[in-house]
Amino acid sequence: MTAQTVIRQVSQHVGQPVKIGCWVHNKRSSGKIQFLQLRDGTGYIQGVVVRSDVPEEVWDAAKSLTQESSLYVTGEIREEPRSQSGYEMTVTGIEIIHLTENYPITPKEHGIDFLMDHRHLWLRAPKQRAILVIRAQIISAIQNYFDENGFTLVDPPILTPSSCEGTTNLFHTKYFDEDAYLTQSGQLYMEAAAMALGKVYSFGPTFRAEKSKTRRHLIEFWMIEPEMAFVDHEESLRVQESFIAYVVQSVLDNCRKELETIGRDITKLEKIVGPFPRITYDDAIKFLNEQGYDIPWGEDFGAPHETAIAEKYETPVFITHYPTKIKAFYMKPDPTNPDVVLCADMIAPEGYGEIIGGSQRIDDPALLEERFTEHELSTEAYQWYLDLRKYGTVPHSGFGLGLERTVAWICGLDHVRETIPFPRMLYRLYP
Question: Which ranges does the record mark as transmembrane (predicted)?
Answer without folding.
Answer: none
